[in-house]
Every structure is written in C-alpha cells, then in structure tokens.
Design a protein that fits this description.
This protein is α+β, with helices and mostly antiparallel strands. The protein has one domain. It is 53% helix and 33% strand. The radius of gyration is 20 Å and the shape is elongated.
Amino acid sequence: MKRLALILGLVLFLLGIVAVVHPTFEYSTRERVARIGPIQATMDEPETFQVPAAATVALLVSGLVLAVASFKMKS
C-alpha cells in the first residue's frame, strides 16, 4: 500500500508539472461536411483544450501530499 501511494503521488505530481509546462493541447476532430451517395466529404477541425489552473494546482498538491504521506505510512 505504501508503494502504491508513492507511485500514485509521483504520477499525479508529474502530470501537474506537465500541465504547468504545457497548459494547452491541440487535437483535431473529423467532421462530415457532405454526403452524396457513396461519396462523402470530411473536414478536419482543429480544437484546443486548455487545462484549468485549478486542476493543475490540484494535481500538484495531491501528488505531493500522497508522496509525503507514503513516507509516513507504516508498512
């Protein structure tokens, strides 16, 4: 249990660091524009997702708390 808490804490903390360094992610969605019989036209639509600041802080704090708590746990 102690090792699991440490690993989970480190993973959450690293995800928080990634969110601080790279707060926006871009991806594309494919949208069907027209369909005429067996032929269809699609278009790739670029989308942007921004990680909320509260989520970044929550990841950093919860990861740090779990990592520190894992050291204070009894085996």
